[in-house]
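batch_manifest entry 22 of 60
target: HlyD family secretion protein
source organism: Pseudomonas panipatensis
requested by: lab member K.T.
priority: normal
notes from requester: please return tokens only, no post-processing; we will run our own comparison against the previous entry in this batch. if the run fails, retry once and flag.
--- input ---
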Amino acid sequence: MRNRILFSLAILGVIAGIVGAFIFGATKKNPEPLFKPVSSPYQSSIYANGIIESDQPGGSNINIYPEVSGQISTITVHEGQVISSGSLLFSIEDSVQRANSDVAAANEKSARNQYEKRLASYRLDPHSISKDSLDTAKDNLEQTHAQSKAANALLKKYSVTSPVDGVVLAVNTTTGSYVSPQGTYNPYTQGFDPILILGNRQDSLAVRCYVDEILISRLPPAEHIRAEMALRGTDTRIPLEFVRIQPYVSPKIQLSNQRQEKVDLRVLPVIFRFSTKGHTDVYPGQLVDVFIGPK
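--- output ---
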């Protein structure tokens, strides 16, 4: 009886071993990739990292910094909002400067009264007041007028308006935060960011790509350049229109929030443009792969 049990267990062990070997030894089918690996659409091309930005005639996005320091009292725009030139963007608490403007206006009013009284007296009787005293009053009026004008001009700096027609790409502060001409402090990057970032209307966007210095000699002439960008993580490919080359080779900056981080490599910026019609999945600041080839 005992031998039968041992014999049965041995047979079961052999069967279990065969089944296990079949299960674990079977070749598993690899899953299909979510998207095709990026590849060049041209027979001959060079590769460059790119970043999508606002389509500006010169430069990139518009960074808004205040010219004065203080606490944000109001923010009148939101991200994605289309704005026109002269629209109020945000205001800084201005009670002290408003009081200074009132004092300057009062001083100007007092100086004007003094000058007008002396001028009236001089016109009635030139011997009633010296010409020197009249000139001093006039100089004092001009000085207080200039001080009042300067105080009012400084007061306007506490209300920041848009310099162009465009769209709000980013708002990096909130009501109650302290800002300065350096911008607003970012506790994550431990650096200073612009208060707002503006861009042109996004019927079209630009792509700024950085060509490694060792590949610059392989760039086609400007009139024969064509390019295509690939959105990372997708199968989307978008043809690009050549705009210009920024003719200054500079140290490469890592395309991240750490803008001060540099590597031992120099690059040439090349700017392209594309229409956003039919493309709802592209945004300024997005990193892309760019292939540049000859026509």
